[in-house]
Structure to design on (281 residues):
């Protein structure tokens, strides 16, 4: 190809002359999405927050996303929020390196003394901390800590909504990890299939858990009011191919007198997705 970009020296831009106009699309896309420069950007959005463990009293630091620093790009149909250059979900967990007590951030200090005894007895006794000196947390490590949080939740016999919430977060992390996969890798398709199967398992658990929770717990639940929970359950039911339930729940939101307008707007979008999915399946 002739050098289409020649003549730029006068602008001081001579070194662009060998640049391809249509460079590797994948690379360009990665750069525009912010994934290629993620390493530095992600670190800059973090700080070490100090916690005191309510189970063993140890003081430790945990990586936390600076509030208001990450830019929201949008949300998935099931309310998973996506941000530029970072996935804050990976950091929404606190794990004591001494005793293994681990929860989603919002629940860390909400533990009763009988629950703390259960953690000491069933988790701390065998717990071996895995050392992480990285400046950021990988999806793999985040999924592991969330699974540890799920084990903690089971051991301390917490509310079903808390367990459902952790399952939902694990599903979202698996999705985030899948979006990060290298599309040019030989085993890309296999990895995607495996990841989708694993995500669906956690979605099913979240759906089952939240369905049970709404029957016996009070709102707000995991920070969500009743309309938001109806919406979320509709989205999860749709992913589990429970279309009748999904349609019923989404109609509740659309016709609700208390649901906010932006939630109703999302519910109308979800209704279209449910109708389409039902037709396709
Ligand atoms: Zn501890």
């Amino acid at each position: 190809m002739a050098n289409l970009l020649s003549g730029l020296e006068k602008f001081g831009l001579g070194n662009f002359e060998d640049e391809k106009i249509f460079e590797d699309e994948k690379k360009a896309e990665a750069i525009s999405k912010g994934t290629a420069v993620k390493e530095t950007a992600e670190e800059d959005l973090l700080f070490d927050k100090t916690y005191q463990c309510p189970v063993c009293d140890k003081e430790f630091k945990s990586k936390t996303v600076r509030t208001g620093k990450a830019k929201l790009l949008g949300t998935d149909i099931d309310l998973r929020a996506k941000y530029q250059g970072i996935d804050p979900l990976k950091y929404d967990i606190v794990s004591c390196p001494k005793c293994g007590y681990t929860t989603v951030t919002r629940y860390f200090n909400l533990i009763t003394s009988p629950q703390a005894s259960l953690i000491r007895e069933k988790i701390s006794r065998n717990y071996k901390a895995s050392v992480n000196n990285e400046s950021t947390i990988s999806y793999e490590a985040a999924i592991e800590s969330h699974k540890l949080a799920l084990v903690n939740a089971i051991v301390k016999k917490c509310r079903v909504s808390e367990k459902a919430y952790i399952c939902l977060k694990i599903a979202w992390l698996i999705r985030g990890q899948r979006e990060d996969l290298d599309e040019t890798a030989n085993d890309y398709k296999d990895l995607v299939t495996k990841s989708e199967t694993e995500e669906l398992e956690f979605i099913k658990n979240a759906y089952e858990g939240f369905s049970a929770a709404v029957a016996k717990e009070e709102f707000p639940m995991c920070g969500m009011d009743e309309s938001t929970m109806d919406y979320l359950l509709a989205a999860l039911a749709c992913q589990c191919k429970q279309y009748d339930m999904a349609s019923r729940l989404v109609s509740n939101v659309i016709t609700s007198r208390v649901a906010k307008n932006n939630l109703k707007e999302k519910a109308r979008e979800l209704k279209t997705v449910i109708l389409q999915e039902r037709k396709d399946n």
Q: What stands out?
A: Residues 143 and 170 are 6 Å apart (CA to CA). The pocket of zinc ion is lined by residues 53, 55-56, 58, 96, 98-99, 101 (CB under 6 Å). The longest helix spans residues 188-216. The beta strands are 46-52, 59-65, 72-75, 81-83, 93-95, 102-104.
